[in-house]
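Two entries, shown back to back:
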Amino acid sequence: MTLEKTIKKAVEGGWKNNHKAITLLKGGVQFGEIENEGEILLHEQIFLDPLFWQYLGKAMGWEKQFNEYSELETKRLLEKGALIPRWLYRWHCFIDHLAESKSPKTFFENL
């Protein structure tokens, strides 16, 4: 997915926390460094918002998906606190991707 499609997907899922990003999407502005009301908004800032990831997960159907465990095993791991939601896992993968000096664009291309 492109960066713009990824953000649109989160908006479709209900993400409204960052009104600047939504306004920028409606205006068709290119992402990167974007000046909005005298403020520079980087797409990296959008992608570090946990609400962005929760709503992206909702739009992508990740709400109830976990790694490949049986239903019983998933329930047991959740009760122990040993399993995290798929959106949170993907967000952690994104942060690891950035830590390896890779760009947000290359992460979302494979999403």
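entry 2 starts here
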Amino acid sequence: MITALTLKFGANPEDEPLRHEPATVTVFVGPNNSGKSRILQEIDRFCRDGTPKAGNVIFENLEFAALDDAAIEDWIEKALVAPKVGDRVLDGRVQVGREDDAANVGREQLIASLKNPQANQNAYCVGFLRFRLLKLDGKNRIELVSKKPVGDLQSRPQNGFQTIFADDDKRRSLRDITYDAIGGYLVVDPTEIGQLRLRYSDRAPASGREERGLEADAVAFHGQAQLIDEMSDVVKAFTGIMLSRVNPPFY
């Protein structure tokens, strides 16, 4: 997605701008107050609207890879959000994103930006990139696993909790991944009416009904499992990252 990152300077402030072509993972390393958090904040702001900020100290610009036609159609199909009552969507425009965070964009402009991101970074970031950001600061990594509303299960899932609650295969796949790392069985607890919570159990649920139901055996099963709220930040962060990967198209 990101093909190059340009900083305002190199190893020293007086050096020429540094252009970096990132690999799968890019890590910023340095002592306290060296600018690690600052550059991440500047990159995050740019990725949400595609506009370089005058106050940036370190970050200059990003370059992006174009999407092919199939990927573009797949994104738009998955990301379309139905207008809410009272919303006005003009001809040629669409709403993409989530029900609680949607962008109203021109369809053709969005398609053009996905084919040629550098020509219109604003449309690319507003209509696509910002929905694919995962910010893992202290607050957000905890929020990823905080309880979520059940919502309307007849509609497209709006968060990872709803996705895995409704999809048996994704729930089992995520459970296998987290069990290998943590040694407990990740389960989705619906027993707080209207909310979904995550727990880790010493045993796997005997059936989907025991995990997803509200009968006495389901209530007892979840009562014996540990709420993720009571577990370490490491467990919360790892679970949140893995959970975000099963909620396409946003991560």
